[in-house]
Amino acid sequence: MKIKSHTLTPHTLTPHTLTPHTLTPHTLTPHTLTPHTLTPHTLTPHTLTPHTLTLGVSSENLKFPTELIPKGSKVLDVGSGSGVISARMRDELGCIVTGLECGQEESNAGGCSIESSQRMLGKENVIVSTLQAYANSHQCRKFPVVTVFKYNVPLNQKVEFCKALTRVVERDGVVIIHVVERERAFRDPSNLHLFLIDELRLNFNDVTITERHYGYGPTSSGDILIKCRDPKVN
Ligand SMILES: C[S@@+](CC[C@H](N)C(=O)[O-])C[C@H]1O[C@@H](n2cnc3c(N)ncnc32)[C@H](O)[C@@H]1O
């Protein structure tokens, strides 16, 4: 059984429903994880394993792979959302950041993600579009660094989205896709629709995966970086 975040309540969160299969970053959100739902009764060694519990990481705490994003680089931040991470790259790494946001999802800070990105980065620094539409437009520019933090693109756009990434990155540049769901980076036969690596390898010659961990014990979390270089069509 797969649990949707809106169905995950103190009532539904039981040892029976908390299984490796149901615990995903999508279902485990600050909204569903409350002192009510997190009780010794629901949290058992059986339900909480390093393999199943990847909580993701907040935009404020996310660590930048500085070896891939040199100080001062020109970055296209695709799906900039709230704009918090884009603004951090600008302020902490001195990058010149262009956000790209289509408004598919609300900002995780609440409200419209386009407006939020524009507030954080300045209107002139945000492209309002899907990546696919931008990549096919005459305005399309190429960037040495393209980031996609907390990738969450509609499933029916996955193929075109991965292809579009090759058009916005410079030939010797890098695309960094940050994911918080293991199934996006590691093949899971029951969740192949989420898996990105096959699609990315169709478009890039060099695709590598790095899994990272933050902290230890029950509050530990993690994320995954997928690095794509050497676009096949550019
Ligand atoms: C999970 S949010 C992550 C937002 C931000 N990167 C962060 O880490 O806080 C994913 C964002 O990607 C945007 N998005 C989804 N599909 C997109 C597409 N095809 N092109 C551009 N942005 C897209 C959504 O609107 C949403 O703001």
Sequence-ordered SSE layout with sheet pairings:
Layout: E1 74-78, H1 84-93, E2 96-101, H2 113-121, E3 126-128, H3 131-135, E4 143-148, H4 158-168, E5 169-179, H5 182-185, H6 197-203, E6 204-214, E7 221-231
Parallel strand pairs: 1-2, 1-4, 2-3, 4-5
Antiparallel strand pairs: 5-7, 6-7
Helix pairs in contact: 4-6
The chain binds S-adenosylmethionine.
S-adenosylmethionine binds next to strand 2 and helix 3.
Please tell me about this protein's structure.
This protein is α/β, with parallel strands linked by helices and 234 residues long. It folds into two domains: 1-53, no CATH class; 74-231, Vaccinia Virus protein VP39 (Rossmann fold), CATH 3.40.50. Helices cover 20% and strands 23% of the residues. The chain is built from six helices and seven strands, in the order βαβαβαβαβααββ. The chain has helices at residues 84-93, 113-121, 131-135, 158-168, 182-185, 197-203; strands at 74-78, 96-101, 126-128, 143-148, 169-179, 204-214, 221-231. The protein has a seven-stranded mixed sheet, with helices on both faces. Helix 4 (158-168) runs parallel beside helix 6 (197-203). The longest helix is centred in the last third of the chain and has 11 residues, at 158-168. The protein is globular and about 55 Å long. It starts with 73 loop residues before the first strand and ends with a strand. The model is unreliable at 1-8 and 47-54 (pLDDT under 50). The structure holds S-adenosylmethionine. S-adenosylmethionine binds at residues 59, 78-82, 85, 100-105, 108, 113, 130-132, 149-150, 152-153, 157, 161.
